[in-house]
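Subject — a protein and its fold
Fields — amino acid sequence, structure tokens
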Amino acid sequence: MSNFIAKKAAGFYLIVIAAAAAVISLIRFCIWAPAHQGMDVTIILALAAGMVMNLILAVKDEDLLVVFQAACYAYALFRHLTNQVGSFVDSFQGINMFGDATQVGTIISISIGMAVSVAVTIVAGFMRREKEV
């Protein structure tokens, strides 16, 4: 196990951080969404696909997987934001008509976790994930 970790570079650890942020986002989304009519299975599938790619990247370093992983996390982020646009509109207007203005803080906090996953994955794509032997 120590030999496995010794071969990994900084990019690998960024991928792990991205996976952790995605797991936190997924858990928060799955707890929050059913109670506020915001459940979207494609968001769950996109985050899960990104996490599966994280597991594959732990075993085999592949640049294309990092691109697909970032795309999955970005899809989940923007799908979540576009699904909840009514809540943002209600917050700006000061009414509850299209969504729930009281949930904007939670929507943003879930989105921040997803955005961290996207940003860290993109940065990790430009870094080495395994040390040169």
In short: The chain has a mean pLDDT of 92. The two ends are 17 Å apart (CA to CA).
